[in-house]
Amino acid sequence: MSKTAVGAPVAARGVGFDVERIRADFPILRRQIRGRALTYLDNAATTQKPQAMLDALMEYYTTSNANVHRGVHLLSEIATEAHEAARGKVRAFLNAGSTREIVFTRNSTEGINLVAHAFGRWRVQAGDEVVITAMEHHSNIVPWQLLCEERGAHLRVAPIDDSGALLLDELEALLTPRTKLLSVTHMSNALGTINPIATIVKLAHARGVPVLVDGSQAAYHLPVDVRALDCDFYVATGHKLYGPTGIGVLYGREALLEEMPPFMGGGDMIRSVTFEKSTWNELPYKFEAGTPDIAGAIGLGAALDYITAVGLEQIGAHERDLLDYGTAALLEIPGLRLIGTAPHKASILSFVLDGVHPHDVGTIVDQEGVAIRTGHHCAQPVMERFGVPATARASLAMYNTRRDIDVLVAAIRRVQSVFG
Ligand SMILES: Cc1ncc(COP(=O)(O)O)c(C=O)c1O
C-alpha cells in the first residue's frame, strides 16, 4: 500500500448533502434493535462511525502498525507520517496556525485537565479566581474545583437565563484582576445553547484573561476557527466527531504552550534525561507523554476528512431543519416541556414529560428501537438550575432524518399511553 492510503477519501465526497447516501456510509444504522430499525438519537453522547473511518483503523493495523517517533525502520516511518498527517488534518479542521499548537489527548476531559494542571498550577495562586458558566459539563467544572482547592483559589460561575442562554453582562462583571482563566463551553450538551465565543473572548481579553473553550459538542455541528475565535485553548473529543473513542485534541496558543510546564512525564515528552534533571521536547510533544493512540489519531483524521467532505455548513443546515421540525413536533405533545430554548442553539432536544420520570421515557422508547439519553447528562448544576432531577434528551447528527423524529414522537406518545 502507499503511504498515503491510510485515511483514504470517503464515499460521500462531492455528492452534496444527500442524507440517505450519508446513512449508507454508517454500517451500524442498518442494524435492528429489538426487531426494529435503529433510531439513533443519542449523538451528544457519542456519534456513529462512517465506513471510511473504520477502514482507516483497519488499514492502519493491517498494513502500517509500528511505534512512532522512534524507529529508523520503514514501518515506523510510515506510522509516524500517518500520525503527523492526522495532526495536520486537525490543524486544518480547527484552522490553527501550526501543528505545534495541536496536542493529542485521550478526550476533551483530558484536554481540560491538562490545562488545569499545566496552566493552572503555573498561573493560579491563592486568592485568584477561575470563571466558568452555569451550563458546563462536569468535565469543565471538576478540574477547576480540584485546582482551586489545591491553590486556595475560587471558582466563580456566570449564570444563565430561563431559556438556557448565558447572561453576558453577569459574566463580564465576574472578570476581575483576580481572574486567571475563563473556561466556557462552545455548546451545551444538556441544553443545546451555543455561546457567542468570539464576543466572550473579546470581553475576557480586554481584561487580560485567557479563555479555554470546550468544543466537545460544537465541533461536529459548526465550523470552528480558533484564530477567528481568538481563544487561547480549545478542546474537542474524537468520538463525537465520528471518530474513535480514546482520542481527543487540545488546541493551545503556541506562546502559552511554550511557557507552560508539562502535564505528564514519561517517554516522548523529553529532550534529555539524567537523574539530576530532564529537559522537555519541542511542541506539541512536550504534552504527549508515552506512546500515543496512533490508530485513534489516524481514525480521527479519516473522520475529519469525512466531515469536511460532507461540509459542516451543510451538516449544520440539515440539523437546523431537523431541530426546527423536532421542536415543533415535540411542542405538540401535551405535558411535554422543553428544557433549553435559547435563541441560538443546535441539535439538542432536552425535555421532561408530566408525570413520567425521564428514565421511564428512555426505557419505553428503547422498546421501539429509539436510543435517547436520560439523566443529568453530566451537568447536574444545569438540572438544578431548571428544577428537574433529569431530562430525556434526543440529540441529532448528520445522518438523522425527519423520519427519526416521527418515530421518536410516536414512541413518546406510546410512553404517555402506558402511563395513562
Ligand atoms: C460539553 C461537553 N464537555 C465535555 C464532554 C466530555 O467529553 P469526553 O467524555 O469525551 O471527554 C462532553 C461529553 O459529553 C460534553 O458534552
Brief overview, please?
This protein has 420 residues and is of the alpha/beta class.
Looking at this protein, list some descriptive labels.
single chain; 420 residues; alpha/beta; seven-stranded mixed beta sheet; four-stranded antiparallel beta sheet; 16% strand; globular; disordered N terminus; binds pyridoxal-5'-phosphate
Give a verbal description of the structure.
By secondary structure, the protein is of the alpha/beta class. The chain contains 14 helices and 17 strands. The strands form 5 sheets. Strands 4-10-9-8-7-5-6 form a 7-stranded mixed β-sheet, with helices on both faces. A hairpin with a 4-residue loop joins β11 and β12. α11 packs parallel to α14. It starts with 18 loop residues before the first helix and ends with a helix. The N terminus is likely disordered. The structure holds pyridoxal-5'-phosphate. Pyridoxal-5'-phosphate binds next to α4.
Question: Which distinct ligands sit in these coordinates?
Answer: pyridoxal-5'-phosphate
Based on Cα principal axes, name the global outline. globular
End-to-end gap: 61 Å
Count the DSSP helices. 14
Tell me the structural class.
Answer: alpha/beta
Low-confidence stretches: 1-15
- Can you give the mean pLDDT? 95
For the secondary structure, the number of strands is 17
How are the strands of the largest sheet arranged?
A: 4-10-9-8-7-5-6
Radius of gyration: 22 Å
| Percent of sequence in beta strands | 15-25%
